[in-house]
Design goal:
With 306 residues, the protein is an alpha+beta fold. The chain has eight helices and 17 strands. The protein has two domains: 7-124, D-amino Acid Aminotransferase, Chain A, domain 1 (2-Layer Sandwich), CATH 3.30.470; 132-291, Alpha-Beta Barrel (D-amino Acid Aminotransferase, Chain A, domain 2). The strands form two sheets. Strands 8, 9, 10, 11, 12, 13, 14, 15 and 16 form a nine-stranded mixed sheet that branches. Strands 1, 2, 3, 4, 5, 6, 7 and 17 form an eight-stranded antiparallel sheet that branches. It binds pyridoxal-5'-phosphate (PLP). Pyridoxal-5'-phosphate is lined by residues 38, 159, 167, 193, 196-198, 216, 218-221, 254-256.
Length: 306
């Protein structure tokens, strides 16, 4: 269960957690046209708190909404403020924030013109998505039989509600089979992303991640590439196959929820030594230092809560 907080920001006002209800004829509930974000706030070394890459998350929320023709009835800064206030009003110094843009009720059918575009922001305490143990020791992944979306079937650059049916099917399939997370291949058979994460492999000291073609442009993915540049770890964004995961020295997932989670096994093949490798560990350490405000070089990624 999501641990309840006091208030949810809904259409410009705070309402009690239990009162944040929508009508069953809300358009998005039926057709999936909506946009959302997942954002984390961390306690920082100096005793404060900061939202990680808030601007980029809100940029992506607007981009996702734009892709599915939703005009968010608030400015970028108003959404940023709603997110900051939702954390503050709930007394959260660390946690996960979920803004969502959706189409309310009114008309039905696919082409609607007058339904309200609604926005909510909820926040709650949420630990490691793939488990604390997973972050430390690595998880077991499996390639799902469900492909990632074709680029001209669903709009993969957006974090769009309906797109996640595909992710849910993949996640269920592999969890039911006893694994922790799904690897999804694109429609040409190359490794695309996880059900809610981007994917990196390391081979011979070289970091590699799938190009942006058919995947969500992850903000953690971008952070990792920036960290790699800083740490002088060579990298490339280019397609790779499932057997390149099998023979990788290291592999990890990145995502706001999953943070940086090493993969110790994929499709029952041990990855590298079966333990988080040295490059994964360096990147993980650098990432957690940054989110916790220990690296002044990346202070601009932190939206400090006042
Ligand atoms: C399908 C998918 N890929 C990748 C990611 C990682 O993106 P980010 O690092 O911005 O959270 C997510 C999570 O938002 C996702 O849902």
């Amino acid at each position: 269960m999501v641990p309840k907080t006091k208030k949810i920001w809904l259409d410009g006002k705070f309402v009690d957690w239990d009162a944040a209800q929508v009508h069953v004829l809300s358009h998005t509930l039926h057709y999936g046209v909506g946009a959302f974000e997942g954002i984390r706030c961390y306690r920082t070394e100096d005793g404060g708190s900061a939202i990680f890459r808030l601007k980029e998350h809100v940029d992506r929320l607007f981009a996702s909404a734009h892709i599915v023709l939703l005009a968010i009835p608030y400015s970028h800064e108003e959404i940023c403020q709603a997110i900051r206030k939702t954390l503050a009003v709930n007394g959260l110094t660390e946690g996960y924030v979920r803004p969502i843009v959706f189409i309310g009720d009114g008309e039905m059918g696919l082409f609607v013109k007058t339904n309200p575009i609604r926005v909510a922001v909820a926040a709650w305490a949420w630990g490691a998505y793939l488990g604390e143990e997973g972050i430390k020791k690595g998880i077991r992944a499996k390639v799902s039989s469900f492909n990632r979306h074709h680029v001209n079937a669903a709009m993969t650059k957006g974090k769009i509600n309906g797109n996640y049916v595909n992710s849910v099917l993949a996640k269920w399939e592999v969890v039911k089979a006893g694994y922790d997370e799904a690897v999804m291949l694109d429609t040409e058979g190359y490794v695309a992303e996880g059900s809610g994460e981007n994917i990196f492999i390391v081979r011979n000291g070289f970091l590699q991640t799938s190009p942006l073609t058919s995947i969500l442009p992850g903000i953690t993915r971008d952070s990792v590439l920036t960290i790699a540049r800083k740490l002088d770890i060579p990298f490339k964004e280019s397609r790779f196959t499932r057997d390149e995961m099998y023979i990788a020295d290291e592999m990890f997932f990145t995502g706001t929820a999953a943070e940086i989670t090493p993969v110790r096994e994929v499709d029952d093949r041990r990855v590298g030594t079966g333990k988080p490798g040295p490059i994964t560990k360096r990147i993980q350490e650098a990432f957690f230092d940054i989110v916790r405000g220990k690296d002044a070089l990346f202070a601009h990624w932190l939206d400090v809560l006042k």
